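User: Could you go from structure to sequence for me? I need the amino acid at each position, not a summary. Structure tokens:
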């Protein structure tokens, strides 16, 4: 019977270094592969037994994951920020591949979810739309920065309007500054049709997923955020509870506790001391957090979440914490309706409920 094999890969655009060990941690082989699909497939087909593979998240991770996953028993794409042991000691391609194989065998790697094949297209379209939105925002910020740098007040969105652009440019004293502002206006104008095209393609792809009809009707979510949520989550059942989902969204409360127990009359007892909170978790999906925070700000403007939000404010909760609580509520509801395949019931939002410790924080 062939033993398990553990393969650590160090990947770059030119070469893949593969370090292979057996289930006892003994060295089996080391290979240097060109970063091409056919050669990588041939290498893994040549390995006997159950093969476990690990490599770091990066620009090639999604491509490599789709190539390797059908050929092996386990594929782990790990987060390099969460696996500090990989980069301890000497650094090099062969050393990193060896460390990955060792940590994979020990079960010490923190995986990054790469989703199902069914959402791969939507994920790419969401990323494309997100980058165009960021590019447009960057151009807008640079334009305002240009006017602010000349001590010209430009609050609000008036500076972006097509009909008043010439008036704004005339406020700049030099021809060079006006030319720079003109280029930024042209950049914004060129990005808008591209962003609209990317939005249409993204929503068209999102409509192919059954969850879209459920999520798009949630207060504050809408078509763009629904598409973002589907692309980021992929499969809702990988989150057993809403607390696990909150952590993925960046809404999980981090707690610190020490000296939890004491001995009284020969028996161990837990100390009666409050758990210390340290804010929200730092390792999360940023697009998902942005989507839910935006949904919360939109939802509190109308029924049924405006009453829910106001009740939190009336209970002396700070506005920013109340908005966080609404975002967590929307995230929990979206996970529940997605899992159950049920439509959102607005009447349930303002039902009497016991406020949990996390909500109070």
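Assistant: Here is the amino acid at each position, in order:
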């Amino acid at each position: 019977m062939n033993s398990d094999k553990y393969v650590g890969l160090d990947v770059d655009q030119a070469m893949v270094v593969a370090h292979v060990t057996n289930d006892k941690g003994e060295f089996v082989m080391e290979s240097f592969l060109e970063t091409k699909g056919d050669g990588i497939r041939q290498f893994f087909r040549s390995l006997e037994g159950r093969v476990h593979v690990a490599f770091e998240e990066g620009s090639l991770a999604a491509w490599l994951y789709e190539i390797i996953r059908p050929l092996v028993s386990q594929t782990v794409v790990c987060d390099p920020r969460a696996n500090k042991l990989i980069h301890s000691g000497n650094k090099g391609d062969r050393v990193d591949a060896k460390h990955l194989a060792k940590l994979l065998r020990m079960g010490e790697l923190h995986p990054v979810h790469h989703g199902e094949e069914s959402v791969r297209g939507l994920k790419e379209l969401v990323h494309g739309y997100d980058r165009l939105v960021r590019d447009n925002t960057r151009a807008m910020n640079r334009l305002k920065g240009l006017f602010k740098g000349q001590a010209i007040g430009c609050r609000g969105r008036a500076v972006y309007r097509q009909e008043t652009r010439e008036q704004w440019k005339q406020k700049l004293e030099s021809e060079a500054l006006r030319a720079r502002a003109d280029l930024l206006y042209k950049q914004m104008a060129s990005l808008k049709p591209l962003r609209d095209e990317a939005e249409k393609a993204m929503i068209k792809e999102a409509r192919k997923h059954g969850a879209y009809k459920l999520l798009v009707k949630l207060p504050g979510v809408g078509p763009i955020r629904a598409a973002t949520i589907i692309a980021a989550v992929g499969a809702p059942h990988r989150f057993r509870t809403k607390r696990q989902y909150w952590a993925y969204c960046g809404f999980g409360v981090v707690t610190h506790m020490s000296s939890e127990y004491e001995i009284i009359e020969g028996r161990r007892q837990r100390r009666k001391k409050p758990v210390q909170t340290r804010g929200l978790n730092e390792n999360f999906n940023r697009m998902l957090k942005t989507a839910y925070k935006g949904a919360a700000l939109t939802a509190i403007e109308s029924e049924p979440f405006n009453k829910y939000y106001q009740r939190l404010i009336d209970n002396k909760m700070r506005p920013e914490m109340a908005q966080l609580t609404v975002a967590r509520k929307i995230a929990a509801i979206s996970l529940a309706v997605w899992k159950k395949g049920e439509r959102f019931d607005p009447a349930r939002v303002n039902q009497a409920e016991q406020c949990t410790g996390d909500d109070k924080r």
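One structural detail worth keeping in mind: The two ends are 54 Å apart (CA to CA).
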